[in-house]
Amino acid sequence: MEIESVRQFLKRNFDGPEVVEALRFRLETHLDDPTRDPLSAQVWNAYLELPKHLNPPFTLLDAGCMSGFLYHHLKRYFDFTYTGVDRWPEALQVGREFAPHITFIEGDFIEGKFGEFDYVVCSNIPWKGNEQYNRAIQNLLSQARRGLFMINPNAEILLFERTPGSLGHAGTASPDIQN
What we know:
This protein is of the alpha/beta class. The protein contains 6 helices and 6 strands, in the order H-H-H-E-H-E-H-E-E-H-E-E. It has a domain at 42-160: 3-Layer(aba) Sandwich (Rossmann fold).
């Protein structure tokens, strides 16, 4: 299988056993060499940078986690508590196969509340406009004690921090975190 043909297949198909097989192949490809998948490659430099900005011990919510690739990447650096949330049940099924001890939740991270975490990371999401992006920031920041990392497809990392009295309101982007 070619990773690009798998990506195209997944864009057209969202459920069924073939989708689970394709998602499984995609996660295996990411774990072997994330730069082989153009979608992962566009944020890989940010993923390499992210561990420098996390202070253990910590809990982490991965918003839009797909099958939990970020978990597998970060476990190389840290022992931490991970929760992944995504709307795609087949992706979560594959995530559970590869990390059965991890919490994966089916849900909408733009609107849903999943608890309070030290860090929230949201990466490589195809946003449907600034309004959706800003709603996600507002919601996810309200669940982050230390900070929300938004990783954009150009590998830019934006850090939003809650400030006293600003619960639920986006903080300012930290320019020193941007790539």
